[in-house]
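Write out the 3D structure for:
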Amino acid sequence: MCRGDVSSPLCHQCVMNATQKLSTDCSSSKGAVIWYDECMVRYSNNSFFSTVATSPGAYLWNTANITNQASFMRLLYDTMNESANKAADSSVGAKKYATKEASISSFQTLHCLAQCTKDLSPQDCSTCLSDAIGALPQCCNGKQGGRVLFPS
């Protein structure tokens, strides 16, 4: 699955690179998932379609801290929840992807992105994104940037 704003050629290249990496590094595994900036590739010997999967997860964060943590975290949660609601509010098979920006200050902008796999129902997508947003304090609290990545 590619990020919702990635072009077809870039998506194709990302999936090819991820597939090659998985076949090299995980050739004896019954299941694996890999995330790149533009795509995610996952395989398993068990069916995972139309099922929410929050494990294994990956948590990435910027090492720089924000200055006003309380107001930033409120803005982050509000903006992420808006993105998540928009991404989840689509039918199965539709692109479940949304972005939203919010002004932190006159020279700083918060960029948020939420995305689910297209096979999830709106309710399952909402559940998965809520879990991801709920994981933000453990991974990224007070940081200038972060990502919570789940297989779904």
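The helical segments are 8-25, 69-88, 122-134, 136-140.
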